[in-house]
Write a structure and sequence with these properties.
13 helices, 2 strands, single chain, 335 residues, two-stranded antiparallel sheet, 2% strand
């Protein structure tokens, strides 16, 4: 009598995080190098951005409005848009955008190969970051365009309601609690739309790197792969979002004082180092967990068995994840 196959372990957040930890520990020096190259600049910039922004805001630089004040000599309004602050913010956003995509490409590539037990090389991971960069840019821009489209639709609906109310002869008080409550309702609706899209696009960037697709195709592919596991995707999004929010809040505590004086405190410097390190580890775990979740999703949808059979030509695959290089078996169950 044939022995029945071992049941598959349920795919939940704990299983994903456990597998992620095994892969990172098995190639700790490799992921440390990638984190220092791409994630540490991100986490450090997140921690020091409030201080640098405060320094730019306090500097007395010419502004867009003050440069045009000669057109209206009676204008006495204070400047709103300091040009130096605006340029710094745009450069900061560009810096975050570029390094985030580099980190996504390199770490996703490494975790994908580490999942199969293949050797991971630093140069190959860096090369993957550059080769997948423009594919990631196109996918990111399309996703942001879709989100912006929903925001524009909601803004037009709110604007139409306000105009319709005014045409009916009612006066709209924009500071009234009713109008503020209406705005909050629209914000909640938009937030739910964004969360729904992010859940459906949980694998989009992994698909870009692993399957070499770009544009709208990774978004569609991710939506198909996440079917049946949207609860896990939502839980993972909330889990990492919660801890990222805590670290972001902790890193900005105390910036109400003069930024130039804060750097003289050793306690504050240690605070920056700790928050940057923790945020770097959290971002590494998120990128790695997204890739592991993608692999589990492919297994559930019956796509991983064919890839494993094609590469290893056997039913059981030994993946040396553990610190002691104890084989970790992935059982492919055929139904």
């Amino acid at each position: 009598m044939a022995t029945p196959p071992a049941p598959l372990l349920p795919v939940d957040l704990c299983a994903i995080l456990s597998e992620t930890k095994r892969i990172i520990n098995a190639h700790s020096r490799h992921f440390l190098a990638l984190s220092v190259l791409f994630l540490l600049p991100l986490s450090f910039s997140f921690s020091v951005y409030p201080a640098i922004y405060q320094l730019f805001s306090q500097s007395s630089t010419p502004t867009i409005e003050t440069d045009l004040n000669f057109l209206n000599p009676f204008q006495q309004q204070p400047p709103i848009f300091p040009t130096k602050t605006l340029i710094f913010t745009l450069l900061y956003i560009l810096f975050i955008f570029i390094f985030s995509l580099f980190a996504t490409g390199s770490i996703t590539y490494s975790v994908f190969h580490g999942f199969y037990g293949r050797p991971v090389k630093l140069l190959s991971a860096i090369k993957s970051a550059f080769t997948s960069f423009f594919h990631l840019v196109s996918t990111c821009l399309i996703s942001e365009f879709i989100i912006s489209g929903f925001l524009l639709i909601l803004a037009l609906v709110l604007f139409s309601l306000v105009k319709a109310t005014q045409l009916l002869g009612f006066q709209v008080n924009f500071s009234s609690p009713y109008f503020i409550s209406l705005c909050l309702v629209f914000i909640i609706i938009f937030s739910c739309i964004v969360v729904y899209l992010q859940v459906n696009w949980a694998f989009a960037y992994v698909v870009v790197v692993v399957e070499s697709s770009w544009g709208l195709e990774p978004l569609k592919r991710s939506k198909n792969l996440v079917k049946g596991m949207k609860g896990v995707a939502l839980l993972m999004l909330l889990y990492f979002g919660f801890f990222s929010g805590i670290l972001a809040w902790v890193s900005t505590v105390g910036w109400n004082e003069a930024a130039a004086d804060k750097w003289k405190s050793w306690a504050f410097v240690i605070h920056i180092v700790l928050t940057s390190s923790l945020l770097m580890s959290l971002m590494l775990s998120y990128l790695a967990a997204s890739t592991v979740f993608y692999m589990y999703s492919k297994a559930i949808h019956g796509e991983l068995a064919g890839e494993i059979a094609e590469e290893f030509a056997r039913e059981y695959v030994s993946l040396p994840f553990d610190d002691g290089k104890v084989p970790h078996l992935v059982s492919v169950v055929y139904r």
